[in-house]
Amino acid sequence: MPERLKIALINPESPADVYYFPTGLCYISSYLKKYSEVNPDIAIYNIDSSNRDKVVEFEPDIIGITCFTHSYSDALELSEYYRSIVNDALLILGGCHISVIPESLGGEFDYAVIGEGEQTMLEIVSLVASGKSDEIAKIDGVAYRSNGKVVINKPRAIIEDLDEIPFPERDSVEEAESIIRTDHPGWFGALGLRYMQLTTSRGCPYRCIFCQPSVMWGKYRMNSPEYIAAEIEYIYNKFGINAILIEDDLFTGSKSRVARLIELLEDKKLLGRIRYYIAGRTSQIDSDWADMLGRMGVCKVEFGIESGSDPIAAYLKTGKTSTEINKRAVTLLNSRGIGVFGSFIAGAPPETMNDLNETFKMIHWIRKSSPLNTCGIGIATPLPGTGLWEYAVKRNLIDTNNFDWRKLSTLKKFPESEADMVYLNEHIPADRMLKEIKKLQFRLKLGSPREFIKALPRRLKKLTRRIFKIHK
Fold this sequence. Notes:
single chain, 472 residues, alpha/beta, Rossmann fold, pyruvate-formate lyase- activating enzyme, 2 domains, 7-stranded mixed beta sheet, 17 helices, 39% helix, globular
């Protein structure tokens, strides 16, 4: 074992296309660097088949790969490759997918980290550094294979006080500057900004039938406004950030927290210097919220509206929801100059063509209400750990013993046919459903004639950069 333990943390996404920091890995890195006694050398990578040898050149002692369900197949392939090349490295899998369905552990991984990874990885690193790797199988929060079966240890207790976790360590991400300079006019309404993600909570108090992250994180927990303000100040000064995507599933979980955050940002003279994109619930939005978000500098709020049909929205979501509530929230925010992104799901099991048409009407209403508003729509996908997964398994739409995980990659690549997905709807033929959604997606991407002309330079620039990276 070398004097300094070397750890490679991998996000299985193409570096040519990635436009975000792998925040979970950045937290793991900062936590290990603060609390580990072995002072590990940590590198964070965005990896696909084109650049996977970078990790080999690093000569890691531990390789940790995180993934969602849509990239699980990629993670498995990487584990097999690294096992064949770096045979003595410890291979660890973490992230949302394996946390909600640890029994699916495959590939060449030695262990899986279930749930929050900071404390479990800290213990693993300590055991490896002290030459006691065989004791990893005894610790809480891991799963591993033994005699052809997956053994799942007792869950590790969650981190109650998120402020104990240091700010995510983004410096180790090779593509950091490229990510920061990526344009997101649909989020922030402008080009040429320096953008970064920020996480201010874990979990969600709601348990919607399609949502996987809320299952992984368990109890809803929030960072204090003091922690958030300090991190915003830090990334503003260090990286020159003037646009922030707050990637919480629900940023509007506490009105008093946001009110205090605004006070702290004002004290630090940061109000008016940064644009924000957040996610909220329409049922929470009132005049006070609209005023506060406007003062903070929020330029767009994402809502999971899911359907224009009240019965289908109620099927998909928990908590209060209705078209009336949704329209009121959109109108309130638009009146303060704040845009809305409406997120929709098509293909829920009970949805009929009439329901789908109501969704199309709602999307049209949102788009027409303000030029600041945008919408997106995807296909209902039974992700592990969710109510839709249980629905699919009970109806034998999924064979848990022999399943192609790429069929759940609809968030990454829209399916071309029913063969590319697990189709849940009971009333609309799959080919018609896909055709209707594709037509709508095309119109949404194209935008109005004015929006299309305005976006042409940016789209050409993006295409040129992608071609350049492919042939680099």
